[in-house]
Specification:
Elements lengths: L17 E5 L32 H13 L4 E5 L9 H9 L6 E6 L4 H11 L5 E3 L5 H8 L5 H13 L6 E6 L7 H9 L5 E6 L17 H12 L1 E4 L9 E5 L5 E5 L12 E4 L4 E3 L8 E2 L1 H5 L4 H13 L5 H4 L12 H4 L2
Parallel strand pairs: 1-2, 1-10, 2-3, 3-4, 4-5, 5-6, 6-9
Antiparallel strand pairs: 7-8, 8-9, 10-11, 11-12
Helix pairs in contact: 1-2, 1-9, 2-3, 3-5
Length: 340
């Protein structure tokens, strides 16, 4: 059955071009800004495997999204490398016509074992979260005492497997890892890999977010300017979340993702699918629309496509532009549930 193709555009004129697919709500880290141990402890009820979308279901939905304009798919979690046989899903998605970019975000803890298989399956790019090179700071931030050396080994393995321009994501929290900003920039400068410094966000409703804990992009840039000399460079795509900069000596580039102080909702073209098939139209959404039920009730691709068009057509999300002290308290979906 062919799926009618038309680019879905929302109420703000934003086309649907990027889909983030969470393949699990589980993670082996407990990063304090995302999955605090106090909430996601031993008794936390994660999704049962029967509740998760199967690889067949993910592929079917991906085809429908691609027919509606999606060009880029990012696999996320929780920690996506915890999902067994992930390379088989990658192979399925990589084979879909019309998908020009297939990438994944990981905490890097299992990358040394899986990088080659993911690459061979067709994964094009990879992003690794790495909040510090200081082992004590890193262990404190992941809160499971995981050594930074293992993640660095994972990045090496990904590089050896053929991944270039690996993105390195660092969430900066005041009083926790500001000292890591210059360190990370120095470590990856000249390697071709790109560090992106991310302003700490009020994702979900469990990380105890306070504006005082945010290190604004302007301060991050001041630090890097003072140390290296930097200059802005043009974005690759309007919908890219990171502002790009290069080191004055031409030794590479880095990015800053400033969702709090320089929101980028006007060009936001991202949809997020949770591992149990809920479609969220914003990282800070409070509810998702169920796409698993129509799949499992035997609805046709055309019927699901019409549902998707209906959801996206009325989309008006601009959370970061409208953030207030009250919106911060909303019962937003957890980032660990839909990926960043
Ligand atoms: S806050 Fe929502 S609408 Fe704005 S950029 Fe983020 S995901 Fe997009």
């Amino acid at each position: 059955m062919t799926i009618p193709t038309s680019v879905a555009v929302d109420s703000q004129g934003r086309p649907l071009t990027d889909l983030r697919i969470s393949v699990t709500d589980r993670c082996n880290f407990r990063c304090t800004y995302c999955m605090p141990k106090g909430v996601f402890g031993r008794d936390f009820k994660f999704l049962a495997s029967a509740a998760l979308l199967t690889f067949e279901e993910i592929e079917r939905l991906a085809r429908i999204f691609i027919a509606h304009g999606v060009e880029k798919i990012r696999l996320t979690g929780g920690e996506p490398l915890l999902r067994r046989g992930l390379d088989r899903l990658v192979a399925r998605l990589a084979a879909i016509d019309g998908l020009t970019d297939l990438t994944l975000t990981t905490n890097g803890s299992l990358l040394d074992k899986q990088a080659r298989a993911l690459r061979d399956a067709g994964l094009r790019r990879i992003t690794v979260s790495l909040d510090s090179l200081d082992d004590a700071v890193f262990r404190a931030m992941n809160d499971v005492d995981f050594p930074v050396a293992r993640v660095l080994a994972g990045i090496e393995a990904a590089s050896a497997a053929g991944f270039e321009r690996i993105k390195i994501n660092c969430v900066v929290k005041r009083g926790v890892n500001e000292s890591s900003i210059v360190e990370l920039a120095r470590r990856f400068r000249g390697t071709g890999h790109v560090v992106r410094f991310i302003e700490y966000m009020d994702v979900g409703s469990t990380n105890g977010w306070r504006l005082d804990d945010v290190v604004p992009a302007s301060e991050i840039l001041e630090l890097l300017e003072a140390e290296f000399g930097v200059r802005p460079i043009a974005p690759v795509k309007r919908s890219d979340v990171a502002s790009r900069y290069e080191f004055a000596d031409g030794s590479g580039e880095f990015g800053v993702i400033a969702s709090v102080t320089q929101p980028f909702c006007r060009d936001c073209s991202r949809a997020r699918l949770s591992s149990e098939g809920l479609l969220y139209t914003c990282l800070f959404a409070t509810v998702g629309q169920d796409l698993r039920a129509p799949l499992r009730e035997g609805k046709s691709d055309a019927e699901i496509a019409s549902l998707l068009r209906g959801i996206w057509h009325v989309r008006a999300d601009r959370y970061s532009e409208l953030r207030t002290a009250d919106t911060v308290k909303l019962p937003k979906v957890e980032m660990s549930h839909i990926g960043g």
